[in-house]
Amino acid sequence: MSDKLGTPGLPLKVAIVGSGPSGFYAAEALLKSGLAVEISMLERLPVPFGLVRSGVAPDHARLKQVIEVYTRIAEMPGYSYQGNVRVGEDITVEELCQGYHAVLLACGAEADKSLGIEGEGLPGSYTATEFVGWYNGHPDYRAHEFDLSHERAVIIGQGNVAADVARILAKTPAELSHTDIAEHALEALRASRIKEIFVVGRRGPAQAKFTSKELKEFGELEHCDPAIDPAELSLNPASAAEIADPGNAGARKVVEIFSGFSTRAQRAVPRRVVFTFLKSPARITGNGRVEKIVLERNALSGPAMNQSARGTGQFIDLEAGLLFRSIGYRGVPMPGLPFDQRSGTIPNRDGRVLANDRELPQIYVAGWIKRGPTGIIGTNRADSVATVASLVADLPKLSAAGRKSGFASIQDQLQRRNTRPVSFADWKSIDAAEIARGAKSGKPREKFTDVREMLALLA
Ligand SMILES: Cc1cc2nc3c(=O)[nH]c(=O)nc-3n(C[C@H](O)[C@H](O)[C@H](O)COP(=O)(O)OP(=O)(O)OC[C@H]3O[C@@H](n4cnc5c(N)ncnc54)[C@H](O)[C@@H]3O)c2cc1C
Ligand SMILES: NC(=O)c1ccc[n+]([C@@H]2O[C@H](COP(=O)([O-])OP(=O)(O)OC[C@H]3O[C@@H](n4cnc5c(N)ncnc54)[C@H](OP(=O)(O)O)[C@@H]3O)[C@@H](O)[C@H]2O)c1
Question: How many CB atoms lie within 10 A of CB 80?
Fold first, then answer.
């Protein structure tokens, strides 16, 4: 009698693309499913952990402890890490489908939404993605330069990424020097002349997307005060109804914190973060670089919990030398697979990838590439568990392919294409070297920011 797929005689072979939270939670769900499973986790960088390493702010070290959970998953039998392999370039999804029973894409949302306004591309106008990648030592952004010689910076967007960007600009070098912030960023921030950081929301205070914990931190900075014009906190009836809703306690708390900020005495400190609402950037102007942001005043319309911002035709000018667009991330198409341009995700039903509304056999998605760029690290756990449930339910269909050779089937191709896969043991060597480099300056680690440097260390 032939072996059943998912038994020791015929293990289920799955390629997971991406080593962020959704990739690791998918691996965990598969490894704990009770099936015999062999997983190859393919990651385009030599180093794992996605946005936990390159997104989470350096001064939020506690949140990075989740890496210990992922390390325990990586040590489970059946798991193997293959870093420095970019799917879609070093190996195609089609080739993975030949070597594995299933391919689960957990490749996140690495691009950003655009404002689509005049002047967006002027020097001095940056995306939060670039700035975050730069201060976190992501190899793609190490060579970026941010001109911090101006006194006023403007951030468009009021989500937690905007809060991270504002806080990093607001903190003193002393407040950051014992974090894992990239040394090149710390050096540039030491010379920063920024005094004022405007954080601009297109809707009102009740619709800001900050979580209260992150917002509260602006009241605890050493050399920076939060500031809000109290007049900006008056709520229209629908917004008042929103924060009175028992299910919307988070927004109520956020408005209370704003309210506290608006009445607190300003200290004689060198920096301030100004929160302002109901304004959208209409255009960015300047002679060869950002000099002014033209903001249009908005009014809210629509029912409570579903209000949108509409321009009023009134404009105000805000002089600034720096602009950060923090209006959300966006997925990147994977060669050979369908892509929904509107949402920036791979179309799917319950994690099964769809082409023209028909399920593509063998291909699954999880995390930000599946549902869009929302949710905290933990949100990805349930999301990945749901995708793995779909995959496991499809086992009878997947078993038709019979035996698959897994990583062995792609090893030769990778070698021919001069790709040197990095194992989890290799990552541990990089990790140890980063920790040793950091110890010299009292930091938890000093990241390698150049892929060549990482590979040279392993050679
Ligand atoms: C700036 C920022 C800060 C955040 N801070 C927090 C926080 O403090 N707390 C919190 O709970 N949540 C935070 N989040 C949210 C959290 O990071 C996300 O929910 C989570 O990382 C999404 O997981 P993911 O696995 O879908 O994507 P990612 O974490 O982005 O992982 C995707 C992985 O896929 C890899 N990849 C991409 N393309 C390919 C390819 N073609 N081939 C191989 N590999 C590929 C990438 O290199 C990456 O490692 C933050 C998000 C951002 C943007
Ligand atoms: N510490 C943490 O836990 C942490 C840290 C960072 C990120 N994260 C999580 O990661 C996810 C992504 O965060 P994010 O901040 O990138 O996204 P986000 O929470 O969706 O916030 C995006 C912000 O941009 C605004 N915006 C969107 N399009 C705009 C436009 N065209 N013009 C002006 N403003 C626009 C949104 O306003 P509207 O509301 O009007 O759309 C919103 O204020 C979130 O779930 C977040 O909580 C968590």
Answer: 15
Q: What does the block give as tokens for 141?
A: 């952004």
Q: Is the pLDDT at 269 greater than 90, yes or no?
A: yes
Banded pLDDT at 75 (limits 50, 70, 90): very high
pLDDT at residue 2 is higher than 80: no
What does pLDDT average to over the chain?
97
Burial 189-210 (b: 16+ CB within 10 A, else e): beebebebbbbbbbbbbbbbbb
CATH topology of domain 114-327: FAD/NAD(P)-binding domain (3.50.50)
Q: Check if the beta carbon of residue 81 is closer than 8 Å to that of residue 74.
A: yes
Total Cβ atoms within 10 A of residue 392: 18
**Element (H or E) spanning 98, and its range?**
helix 93-99
* pLDDT given at position 401: 87
Distance 109 CA to ligand 2 centre (A): 13
Nearest protein Cα to ligand 1, atom 13: 376
Q: What is the dihedral of CA 133, 134, 136, 138, to 10 degrees?
A: 60
Q: How far is the CA of 302 from the centre of ligand 1 (A)?
A: 33
Residue nearest atom 4 in ligand 1 by C-alpha distance: 56
Q: How far apart are CA 352 and CA 387, in angstroms?
A: 7
Q: What is the pLDDT at residue 343?
A: 96
With a cut of 70, say whether residue 1 has pLDDT above it: no
Residue with tokens 């997971």: 16
Question: pLDDT tens across 382-427, in order?
Answer: 999 999 999 999 999 999 888 999 999 999 999 998 999 999 999 9
Q: Nearest CA to 19 among 35, 53, 36, 42?
A: 42
Judge contact between 102 and 362, C-beta under 8 A.
yes
Query: Could you report the per-residue pLDDT of 230-268, keeping only the tens digit for each?
Result: 999 999 999 999 999 999 999 999 999 999 999 999 999
Ligand 2 atom nearest to 208, measured from its CA = 43
Cβ neighbours, 10 Å, residue 437 = 15
User: Which DSSP symbol is given to 303?
Assistant: S
Under CATH, what is the fold of the domain 12-110+330-422? Rossmann fold (3.40.50)
Contacts of 37 (CB under 8 A, 6+ apart): 6, 11, 12, 13, 14, 30, 31, 78
DSSP label of 33: S
104 lines ligand 1 (CB under 6 A): no
Quote the ligand 1 centre to 260 CA distance (angstroms): 33
Cα(297)–Cα(282) distance, integer angstroms: 10
The full set of domain ranges for the chain reads 12-110+330-422, 114-327
Task: Tell me the whole-structure pTM to 2 decimals.
Answer: 0.97
